[in-house]
Amino acid sequence: MKTLKRNLLVVVLFGGLLFVNTSCNDDDDTTQETPMMEKTITQVAASDDNFSILVAALQKVGLDDDLAADNSDFTVFAPTNAAFVALLEELDVNGLDDIPNEVLTEVLLYHVVAGGKKASMIESGYYSSLSSGPSEGYTLSFYVDMTMGKINDRASIIQTDIEADNGIIHVIDKVILPMSITDHAVANKSFSSLVAAVTKAELAATLDNDEGMFTVFAPVNDAFSMFLNEANVSLDDLSKEALTPILLYHVMGSVVPASMVEAGYFPTLGSAFENNISVKVDVDNGVMLNSMSNVVASDVVATNGIIHAIDKVIVPPTIVDIASQNSNFSTLVSALVKAELVDALLTEGPFTVFAPTNQAFEDLFAALEITGLDDLTKEDLTPILLAHVVSANALSTGLSNGNVPTLNTTKSIMVNVDNGVTIDGDVNVVAADVQGTNGIVHVIDKVIVP
User: Fold this and answer.
1) Cα(443)–Cα(101) distance, integer angstroms
2) Equal fold, 188-310 vs 319-444
């Protein structure tokens, strides 16, 4: 399929999904209504010499019978002969016989949508074609801009609402081609800031590679504007080295449709200490990343992955950010603030933090017969908190049985990995390997007390 795509040099993380409530009006000068005919889509096309190459292509791959089925209902965006001639010149081939049937099939199906949609029913946004996507059950998306009357910012809709017994035909002046993540971003002006950032970071090869499969959380233009305003910088002020880790943090190395998104921590293509930096996903009220960025549109399917649009740029987190972005660590964060240890844990590290949950702190307070942090001084908290921090970036798979020194120089912890990971015999690691930029977090169910 790669050979059929436009040779776009500009790329992006991710082309997004913003729906504009703009319809094609009945009096649009591109609309031409014709009476209902007793013909199928294939028969309508075959009766018009302007579609002879399209009909020949359908016959070559055996799709002519599918589009002639009486019990079906399709919308077909039909390229003219001139559109096919331009495509053959673009691909530098002599004719349809030079295009493999498998490739031609996917291209033709990319022009077909299930269900008959007149122009008045089509709004600007993404539509699922019948062309196979990279994930089972998902088909490739294309973008219709009804304000401009264009598809994928490539083909113009030049005639609409040709009716057949089993659907509707709209005529287009170019053949549309299945698009990569890069192509989708370039085709949607709602992601122009993202495209500019990815171009500057020279990530084109990464996100335009059909050998890889990605999930991209794509910030819309407003998200980028907000990010730059909060940082009081312009895109020109950010170097390739500054942009690259931020952009890669929006990408996962597998295809995750919206129906498969789960709560938890997941690896991105961002990295620290040769590990993938984690992003936190919540699904209680829609999909949210790092407790601050919402997925506002989902499942734009590209040839090499899937795109979900988000309303805020997410930034690779430090270990302090990881704790701050998770309400289950609110007591830990308050304790770090009271002990004045936040700045120490914002340094380069690396650190391994065994992070007690709120319930772990409640159990400690009950054991100490106190009401909460207010009953503990900075001097009380500091040795306790430092006993939870190791000066290393230790994955759970790299832990072994033995004593490990902590930042509390008087307290080592006894690690045992025989049956899960335990500390000092009765402290359990209940979630592991949440990677940040300056260290890694393992969640524990009990506070370590020196």
Assistant:
1) 53
2) yes
| Domain locations along the chain | 19-179, 188-310, 319-444
Instruction: Name the fold adopted by 19-179.
Output: FAS1 domain (2.30.180)
pLDDT digits (tens, 9 = 90+) for 340-376: 999 999 999 999 999 999 999 999 999 999 999 999 9
**What pLDDT sits at residue 34?**
45
Q: What is the pLDDT of residue 389?
A: 98
The residue among 37 and 284 whose pLDDT is bigger is: 284
Encode 80-106: b = buried (16+ Cβ within 10 Å), e = exposed.
bbebbeebbeeeeeeebeebeeebbbb
CB 266 within 8 A of CB 434: no
The answer to whether residue 24 scores a pLDDT higher than 80 is no
Q: Are 218 and 302 in contact (CB under 8 A)?
A: no
Architecture per CATH, 319-444: Roll (2.30)
Range list of H helices, 158-253: 181-187, 192-200, 204-207, 221-231, 240-248
CA-CA distance, 438 to 349, in Å (whole number)? 5
Beta bridge partners of 125: 144
- Residue 408, both tokens: 């509390």
Name residues whose C-beta falls within 8 Å of residue 289's C-beta, 6 or more positions apart in sequence.
217, 279, 280, 281, 282, 295, 310, 314
User: What CA–CA distance (Å, rounded) separates 349 from 441?
Assistant: 13
Sheet with 305-310: strands ordered across = 251-252, 214-219, 305-310, 293-302, 288-289, 275-282, 264-272
Q: CB–CB of 414/407 below 8 Å?
A: no
CATH architecture of the region 188-310 = Roll (2.30)
What's the whole-number mean pLDDT along residues 323-330? 97
Give the pLDDT confidence score for residue 345 in this predicted structure: 97
Q: Report, as an integer, the average pLDDT of 64-69.
A: 90
